[in-house]
Amino acid sequence: ARRIHSNEGAELLPRPPVVTVMGHVDHGKTSLLDALRQTSVAAKEAGGITQHLGAFVVDMSSGASITFLDTPGHAAFSAMRARGAAVTDIVVLVVAADDGVMRQTLEAMSHAKAANVPIVVAINKCDKPAANPDRVKIQLASEGLQLEEMGGDVQVVEVSAVQKTGLDNLEEALLLQAEMMNLKARIDGPAQAYVVEARLDKGRGPLATAIVKAGTLVCGQYVVIGSEWGRIRAIRDMIGKLAVQARPAMPVEIEGLKGLPMAGDDIIVVESEERAKMLSAGRKRKFEKDRLRKISE
Ligand code: GDP
């Protein structure tokens, strides 16, 4: 296949970090994401009402922004890692200050480590009388996390998702982590993107939330998504506003797909409908072959 995208020689510009929240069940991932979502300017402008897109952006008063994947749990992260498409730059490891480190805390740590993604720890529920953040820090350190206050480089922030305290500190910590990583992306040229969530809408057909990794996704383009294809009919931002294009780290909902893709699928731009159909059919054959091989194994 002729590759129509290349990062060589292209100008690279700073891009926002893409962050995934992980941690043990009930430690407050959903609550924390809700609290963070409410800090975004877009949410404030929309009166707190945002679409559930599977991702959202927090714009800081400094002008910087952070993209959060809004699918807590390991599923999306694992799916993307399995496809070699690590869309996540940073993992926020949520640990409840009362419960401390639990089985899924350790699982999240090993996921992040395997994917070579740095962790920022959010010790949550610090408002609770039984909260013991120091105990959590000792537990994490004994599990091998090199905490900053012990001379390492893993930042720890104490928060309460319910009382909405410490959220600024968490956002600052994420920006600092991102700065150290020097995240950059090509802006010009065809997009390389990933699906973080997909759903079927009765009226609009298959919809996918996409995050662009490099380049710019433009309305009207032909795309191949996993083994599906389509022509982008509409691009919407997190408050449902129509956009002409999507740039790196900006989560958007795209419309105009012929079939339903899966979280973790890659999105590539192709030059024509024929090419889109051909690639999609080829990938369908390959996926089917892989599936049959797995069954027979
Ligand atoms: P998840 O399973 O990790 O997504 O956890 P949830 O966000 O659903 O939270 C589990 C429970 O803990 C809910 O009853 C929340 O109200 C509660 N919770 C979450 N964050 C906090 C917090 O900062 N303080 C207190 N006191 N409770 C919290």
UniProtKB/TrEMBL annotation:
<protein>
    <recommendedName>
        <fullName>Translation initiation factor IF-2, mitochondrial</fullName>
    </recommendedName>
</protein>
<feature type="domain" description="Tr-type G">
    <location>
        <begin position="14"/>
        <end position="184"/>
    </location>
</feature>
<comment type="similarity">
    <text>Belongs to the TRAFAC class translation factor GTPase superfamily. Classic translation factor GTPase family. IF-2 subfamily.</text>
</comment>
<comment type="function">
    <text>One of the essential components for the initiation of protein synthesis. Protects formylmethionyl-tRNA from spontaneous hydrolysis and promotes its binding to the 30S ribosomal subunits. Also involved in the hydrolysis of GTP during the formation of the 70S ribosomal complex.</text>
</comment>
